[in-house]
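[job 0412] stage=fold_complex status=start
inputs:
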Amino acid sequence: MGVLSRLKERLTRTRRAISDGISGLFKGGRPIDDALFAELEELLYTADLGKVAAEVTGELARAHRRGEIHGEEDVRAALKGELLQRLDQPGGEVSLDHHPTVILIAGVNGSGKTTSIAKLAHRFREQGRRVLVAACDTFRAAASDQLEIWAERSGVEVVRGGDGADPAAVAFDAVEAAVVRGADVLIVDTAGRLHTQKNLMDELSKIVRVIQRRIPEAPHEAWLVLDATNGQNAVQQAREFTAAIEVTGLIVAKLDGTARGGAVFGIREAMGIPVRYIGTGETMELLEVFEPEAFVDALLRPDGEE
Amino acid sequence: MTSPARAIRRISFFIQELPSSAALDGGAQRTFPWIGRKPLSSSRAGQRRRDSFRLGRPGLSTVFESLTKRLSSAFQSLRGERKVTADNVEAGLEEVRLALLEADVHFKVARDLVARVRDSVLGEEVLQGVDASQQFAHAVHTALVDLMGPEDATLDLEGPRPTVILMAGLQGAGKTTTCAKLARLLVEKHGRKPLMVAADVKRPAAVEQLRVLGKQISVPVFHQAGLAPEEVCARGVERAKIDGADVVILDTAGRLHVDDELMDEVARIAERTRPRNQVLVVDAMTGQDAVRSAEEFHARLTLSGVILTKLDGDARGGAAVSLKAVTGRPILFVGTGEKIEDLDAFGPERMAGRILGMGDVVGLVERAQETVDEKEAQASFERMVMGSFTLEDLFGQIRMIQRLGPLKKVLGMMPGMGGMLDKVDLDDGHMKRLEALGQSMTPRERLMPQVLDMSRRRRVARGAGQELSAVNQLLKMHKGMGQMMKKMGMGGMAGKAKRKALEGLSSDGSLAAGDLPKGGLLSNLAGGLPDLSKLGGAGGGPGGGPGGGPGGLPGMGGLGDLMGGGAGRAPGSSATRQSGSKRKKQKKNRRRKGRKK
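[job 0412] stage=fold_complex status=done
writing structure:
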């Protein structure tokens, strides 16, 4: 199964909402007018596109006035162009050419960090790399246990401290262990924190500083995990996390429910942070490298077309 | 009279006076480093001054601009009009719709709400003298409150025991944490004896997580490995009967509403255990999808209510509106923090305020109710007015504020302050450092600060691990506050103005929308928060009327000054009735006088 069709299957609910919605708009040979664009805008809002929805529709309406849009196909094409333009980023897998490559994972509570880390670890392990995971969520009860169980399943090692241990200390130990044991990738799990909690955001910066004490250029990647069901607040999250650490990429988790994922556009536009991976299901394999074209296609292509 | 709101007023006054007294030596930032000022571009500062009442987050994207602000431009067309008509109202309504969408209210719900607002305002007279935007903000606020109400929804704890509570929701909504919070609440407030059942067999270590939480609050947790979730739940209920537990809380696995298999499972659990309460746990940050997932859960379960989590973040929480509209079920509680006691009752008023960017005064009062010792506050206040305000009192106040929770959270609950939180850099650590200084003093020093000579000051600084300058700043702050208090107590100039402003509080001390001083923050808000008189709650009004207590509840005037904006005016701040420029001048004069001395 190709990437596109797999994605399509995974994002089927989202696609239905938007794609079928567009088909619905044109039912009965309806003329393209302001009312139609207003409905299109609402449609895009359901995918949590936020103000991007208004912008995109505005562009389309202007194009229509210039006489560039005549029917449903034009609308789809123009929409795709507009959306793709907002996701402008190179696709493909991140290079992991440092040894160890240190990847810091952060996000708000319940966004799906630990599960995403399990999937990442599994993925890198499958690629034949030696993976070490640092369980720096020492706050939430049994978080380290959760990570350990996942890690066991995919055969990666875990460095952990006790509940309530200093997360920065665990991170330091883990970096040390990664160097000593010759790991290829070190993934650092952190506790969920709301971006409004200054002390916890400071803690995040501290973890980075402590890691840098051992490997000055680390962490090589810092990824923010976003819950795809989050609405417009996701942009604010991205903003605040970026202020605390240098976020180099996004992982969009839980993209397998209904109409979701639109927040990606807003974040990409506001912050310029590329999306790295999307989590599309509960099993370990269901983590896809983010491909903008495939993603937008999956959103817009009507059923029965490949 | 027990009146937590009164205590709150005092506290807000205290917070307010910190920076004011600091301004005397022109070094607020030095003296109160926790209120750092982020750089403000000059053009933006200018705009902030013009919009002295704006409530939103200046400088941020439109997403966080408050409705009132947005409306004021949209309703330019209403200037000079006498009646609201379909023609002159549309632009404003479109703004309302966008504001709701940006707060993550579902688009259909937003559309209905707009229609309702349109109906309620059409044909209405345009109130001259009041900004039309306020008139509309009020209408929107009312529509939101109507939709999200009624207020007093709670768990159904009647019927045969044990009462079963089923908790369901998407992954990561916060079910497990909320189970523990709910269990604690049932113990503390209802005197019940709960048992928690760990039925999340899916997520690794979920059972362990609940066990750890259970231990923290001394509530037993039932789990039996190797069984299907519905079986675990059924046996949990049986166990509760044997152990004499009278409430059973079922913590189920997180599930996607499109996952038929898992949705069947949760329906089976409900069938086996017949829960009187079937609660959907929803993340406040949820976007448009909230509606669809709620619909699905509601179709499979007989939901009795919703708990909204992670409201301590800055999500507007528009999901709350959508949920109520779709399920027709009330929102029972809201999760407001990581600590186990952070579970509050839901108030439609304050939620509407939040969605529209208007603060959460009611929540603040409730929080105070739980944490503030009224007697202590009263005694301390009396000493202040009598001019015998000691360092002991100062530390008492600091402790009181700390008990309310993180400063940022407290300020965020005040109307108009939400918008400033990104401008101030509040650091609770400095409160702690101040306290450390206090702990490094002898009781005598705390009661008689004048004995603190250089040698003692040095000792205190050493003892607290801080610089001598920190001690000096503390003493300066204390002195400043004492002077301010004395002035008020004697009814000096500031006191008079204050009293006048206090009359804006109605006779029972509650804030009445009608007679708020014009130009003040609340006058702009009055429309939006129509029923502030509820503030005092059943326990009596929040203040003793004129002279009864300093400062209005949202008396953040001083802080507003400090932050360079005109925002945050409120009745009770001495500057309420003055224009921004006048205020500035006066401040300058004060500063000069301070220097001369």
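[job 0412] summary: Strands of chain A lie at 101-107, 131-136, 157-160, 185-190, 221-227, 249-253, 275-279, 287-289.
[job 0412] exit 0
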